[in-house]
Amino acid sequence: xxxxxxxxxxxxxxxxxxxxxxxxxxxxxxxxxxxxxxxxxxxxxxxxxxxxxxxxxxxxxxxxxxxxxxxxxxxxxxxxxxxxxxxxxxxxxxxxxxxxxxxxxxxxxxxxxxxxxxxxxxxxxxxxxxxxxxxxxxxxxxxxxxxxxxxxxxxxxxxxxxxxxxxxxxxxxxxxxxxxxxxxxxxxxxxxxxxxxxxxxxxxxxxxxxxxxxxxxxxxxxxxxxxxxxxxxxxxxxxxxxxxxxxxxxxxxxxxxxxxxxxxxxxxxxxxxxxxxxxxxxxxxxxxxxxxxxxxxxxxxxxxxxxxxxxxxxxxxxx
Length: 319
Ligand SMILES: Cc1cc2nc3c(=O)[nH]c(=O)nc-3n(C[C@H](O)[C@H](O)[C@H](O)COP(=O)(O)OP(=O)(O)OC[C@H]3O[C@@H](n4cnc5c(N)ncnc54)[C@H](O)[C@@H]3O)c2cc1C
Prior knowledge:
The chain is α+β, with helices and mostly antiparallel strands. It folds into 3 domains: 5-57 and 113-187, FAD/NAD(P)-binding domain, CATH 3.50.50; 197-282, Beta Barrel (Elongation Factor Tu (Ef-tu), domain 3); 284-319. Helices cover 30% and strands 26% of the residues. The protein contains 9 helices and 16 strands. It has helices at 14-29, 47-51, 73-82, 85-94, 114-127, 181-187, 247-262, 285-298, 314-318; strands at 5-10, 36-40, 60-61, 99-101, 106-109, 131-134, 138-144, 147-152, 157-165, 202-203, 216-225, 228-240, 243-245, 264-265, 268-269, 273-278. The strands form 4 sheets. Strands 6-2-1-9-8-7 form a 6-stranded mixed sheet. Strands 10-13-12-11-16 form a 5-stranded antiparallel sheet. β11 (216-225) and β12 form a beta hairpin. The longest helix is centred in the first third of the chain and has 16 residues, at 14-29. The model has no long low-confidence stretch (mean pLDDT 93). The chain binds flavin-adenine dinucleotide. Flavin-adenine dinucleotide binds at residues 10-16, 39-42, 47-49, 51-53, 57-58, 137-138, 166-168, 171-172, 176-178, 180-181.
């Protein structure tokens, strides 16, 4: 029996939409039209994509380089080599989407709307004649001779010569119809790398977090392993109840996850992990003392909690 499609793509998120579009247009150039079906379990495509970058979709960075990657760097390097920033911008421009960079080089759609990215990807899939199907939750994939058979949770079947699994990761399950992609991959004989949380807030039991809830401050955040600095990042920290957040904290979170899992960092056993925040990284200890002494001398009646008012976020200074 002939397969229904040349390629079936499971998952209509950023990866699946791009994969389906690329498969359809790449093969078209070779002459024969490749038939592609994109299967999404949610009622709509790209639910997670819409939530990215606070609804603005930070889709790439002007400084795309391997130095910013952790984990399987070899794989990341191969991808970056094939898809450098300019190619990403060119591909989106071909889809009709213009982008702009912020001061730190983060790239966003020109109208700062993640919905525009989704629309461009969707439209481009339709234009390439990808069969876009929503509400098709793939519950099993089996390999039968020369084709894959994909069965939905309601028993519908799709047969395809090849299958691309783009069912997303474990982050933010509320944006995904299912996390069974790992099971589907395992059942097809793939091995699964253990998933760890990264780019996430870090929980803390500090009593200071509650009164500072919602406050933001520019800091240098240092990760201390048994009192010794192992990593540090400058940026904005956000105080939440029970957790520290913000990009500088996100960037340290992978090490916190590693320590939680193994009790080690950089192959050394670590008993205690702390995050230390420097709220005045541009000032030396001596300069700060000098400043505070001056303030105290000039304004002897100033309550202790107000001493930092000219330097720090008011609430942070008071606490
Ligand atoms: C709050 C938030 C903000 C983020 N901000 C950014 C950002 O600004 N920039 C950035 O680069 N990254 C950001 N990310 C990360 C980014 O969202 C993900 O890396 C990206 O969406 C992954 O795309 P994906 O297509 O691999 O997976 P997903 O977007 O998760 O898509 C997978 C799709 O597969 C579907 N699916 C799963 N299983 C099945 C199945 N069995 N059958 C059919 N369909 C299935 C799911 O419903 C889902 O639609 C953010 C993530 C979150 C949670």
